[in-house]
């Protein structure tokens, strides 16, 4: 964590190699990209930031992680993000060519109120770029994704880095990126290794799921 500020990129100033690469890819493929998260430097602070980039390569939205992660399990893991990052102050919802998307980053998924707010604003999908560790991943990763999807009857997509068992780090990644449907069904999922997975979203199932629950047909 202490080395992250040295890798922080100036997104607003146009000095972000990561965002430039994603913008070029989005424009070349004519696709919308929810671009994971990177350390962003701005106003003398460092944020954990995700950018959504449209098919023209332009930034549609920028989300700064709202809820910073703090954990201290004796003999297991200790981490305090607030030593490095500043928390964001704004929720992020964006209209794209594939629907209305709400954005959260990692620990943001633990807060149901954020997902409820995104539902109230018409989100079809909530994306959570994340890097859960081995302890919280095994206990909570699947549960949190399915809970946010079922609570709000919408789609939830998560993207995690792959796990590198040879990494010289005391923070080992859980992995297991997923796409979850409105009933909590797993539509696509990766393991802990590097992989590409594809899942289809049928937005009409959002309303049919909500009607089924409202009319007690399940």
UniProtKB/TrEMBL annotation:
Ubl conjugation in keyword set: no
Q: Which GO terms describe its biological process?
A: asparagine metabolic process; glutamine metabolic process; oxaloacetate metabolic process
State the signal peptide span: none
Task: Fetch the PANTHER family from UniProt.
Answer: NITRILASE-RELATED (PTHR23088), OS06G0206000 PROTEIN (PTHR23088:SF53)
Q: What is this protein's name? A: CN hydrolase domain-containing protein
Q: Where is the CN hydrolase domain?
A: 1-203
UniProt superkingdom: Eukaryota
Keyword terms: Hydrolase
Organism classification: Eukaryota, Viridiplantae, Streptophyta, Embryophyta, Tracheophyta
Question: What GO terms are given for molecular function?
Answer: omega-amidase activity
Can you cite an annotated GO cellular component? mitochondrion
